Structure formats: C-alpha cells, structure tokens
Amino acid sequence: MKLLVLTGAGISAESGIPTFRGAQGLWKSFKPEELATPEAFRKNPALVWEWYLWRRSVIAKAQPNEGHLKLVELEKRFGDNFLLITQNVDGLHQKAGSKRLVELHGNIWKVRCLHCRAEYYDYTTEAKDLPLRCMYCGGLIRPGVVWFGESLPEKALELAYKWAYECELFVSIGTSGVVYPAAELPFIAKRHGAKVIEINPEETPISSVADVIIREPASSGINRLTEML
Ligand code: NAD
Ligand code: ZN
User: Fold this and answer.
1) How many CB atoms lie within 10 A of CB 60?
2) Which residues make Cβ contacts (< 8 Å) with residue 152, sequence separation at least 6?
3) What is the pTM of this model?
4) pLDDT for 68-121, tens place per residue?
5) Does CATH place domain 18-61+107-145 in 3.30.1600.10?
6) What's the gap in Å between 156 CA and the centre of ligand 1?
7) Buried b / exposed e across 131-151, counting CB within 10 Å, b at 16+?
8) Can you tell me the distance from the alpha carbon of 86 to that of 103, in angstroms, rounded to the nearest whole number?
9) Ligand 1 atom with least separation from CA of 20
10) Residue 133's Cα: distance from chain center in Å?
11) What is the DSSP code (8-state) at residue 11?
12) Which CATH superfamily is domain 1-15+65-105+152-229 in?
C-alpha cells in the first residue's frame, strides 16, 4: 500500500516551535503574510532577516519529538511505498532521520544570493549587521524558503502531485490546510481513490474529506495511526 504523509507546523509544536497561528512575543504584532513575502523583503530586508534569525534561534534549540521519530519508523516499514511531504522549513524531519522526504517550502537554514545566485547552508542565528550578505560575493542573500505569492520548487511539486494521484492512503498531520498548493493534495488524493486520515486537534478544511479523523496532538495521533496500519 502506498502511503503519503503531509505534515505542517503542528507536528513541530511539541518540539517547542510555534505554529504561525500561535506565534508569540516580539513578533505577535506582525503577520507572517506581511513578513514572508518578496515585497516585504524588497521593502525591508533587515526586518525580514531579523524575523528569520529569531525563528532560527527558536528552531536551533528544538529537537525532533516522538511524532517525527514515529514517521521514521513508518518509512522503514513501508520502504519505497512511503513518502513524506512537509511544509515545514525547520529541518526537524531530517534531524529525526527521515530520508524519503520532500521539503515543499524549502529550509530555513538555506540561503540564496540574489546577486551571484549561490545557494548554501548558513547557520547564523545572531548578527549585528543585517541583512546578511553572500559569503562569495557580498551580495544580498535571502532565506531559502518559499514565500507567500511565490511558486514552489518544480520537482518537489511534481513529485507531490504524482504521489497524491497514486497513493492509497493519505495522512495529513498538523496542517491548517489553507496554504496552497499543499492544501490541495488531500483533495486530489481523495478524488483518485485514496483514504484520507487527518491528525489535528482542531477542525480544518481537510476534515471535510477525511475518512478518519484523529483529534489529537501529532505524537499521540501518530501512535494511534501506527496501531491502525
Ligand atoms: P499553520 O500554523 O497554518 O497550522 C498549524 C496547524 O497545526 C493548525 O491546524 C493546528 O490546529 C495544528 N496543531 C497545533 N498544535 C498541534 C499539535 N500538537 N499536533 C498536531 N497539530 C497541531 O501551519 P501550516 O499548515 O504548516 O501552514 C502554514 C505555513 O507555515 C507553511 O508554509 C509552513 O512552511 C509555515 N511554518 C512552518 C513552521 C516550521 O517549519 N515548524 C512553523 C510555522 C509556520
Ligand atoms: Zn553571491
């Protein structure tokens, strides 16, 4: 049986990384939709970098939780019949050991130079001089993530659609199901005959197509899922 899993910010909540809806503190008065955009970056790259460095510093302290680890076990069990697609940029799935993984929205530890086009990993979490500059040419660099209004990496998206068409079981974990095109995947899977399972403490648009709904946090929800399979 082909199993496709889609994760969102909710799976990292138990690792102490706030979801967008629950973002706290200093950044409470900013909406992600106002910071995670090409327009915001053009207008004030230093402010956008400051926000990303704050998010990085939260993520740097976080460890994968039981939910991430259980998905690694499922991957081992299903082998080639398993794919994990994440909207998260925190890198916790890799850290947990997931290999059959597609990062649909990029990775917060990657950067891209707008001048020389270099792409590399950068682990800065604190800097006096913002915005960050390219280590090769000194040009302006941007976070290697997909912003609102931008298209997704083509190969990753193709793979996501292919698996949504072909999978027999689609499991959505901790996503609000409002960010497209990821939010479309459970609907595509359902139309192509897959069973859909949702793990989320709250109702989402995905609930309407779910055959089974597990209204629990990710870690205990995935435990329940594992028992069912
Ligand atoms: P979202 O913030 O819109 O929704 C989070 C969802 O998780 C909600 O439906 C909520 O009910 C659910 N949730 C909260 N706690 C949970 C728990 N313990 N277990 C299971 N579910 C729980 O996030 P999204 O749907 O991923 O989409 C928005 C965008 O936010 C994505 O593009 C993503 O890249 C970005 N984002 C990523 C991170 C991260 O990398 N950790 C964090 C915040 C936002
Ligand atoms: Zn450069």
Assistant:
1) 13
2) 104, 105, 146, 181
3) 0.95
4) 999 999 999 999 999 999 999 999 999 999 999 999 999 999 999 999 999 999
5) yes
6) 19
7) bbbbeeeeebbbbbbbbeeee
8) 5
9) 2
10) 25
11) H
12) TPP-binding domain (3.40.50.1220)
Q: What single-letter DSSP state applies at residue 202?
A: S
pLDDT of the residue at 166: 98
Token code pair at residue 177: 């199901």
Other beta carbons within 10 Å of 25: 9
Residue intervals in the chain for CATH 3.40.50.1220: 1-15+65-105+152-229
Of 19, 54, 108, the residue with max ligand 1 atoms within 8 A of its CB, to mutate for a pocket test, comes to: 19
Question: Is any atom of ligand 1 closer than 6 Å to the C-beta of 111?
Answer: no
Point out the ligand 1 atom lying closest to the alpha carbon of residue 7. Answer: 26
Residue 5 contacts residue 85 (beta carbons within 8 Å): yes
For 32, other C-beta atoms within 10 Å of its C-beta total: 17
State the 10-residue block means of pLDDT for the chain, 229 residues long: 97 93 68 91 97 96 98 98 98 98 97 98 96 98 96 95 98 94 97 98 97 98 96
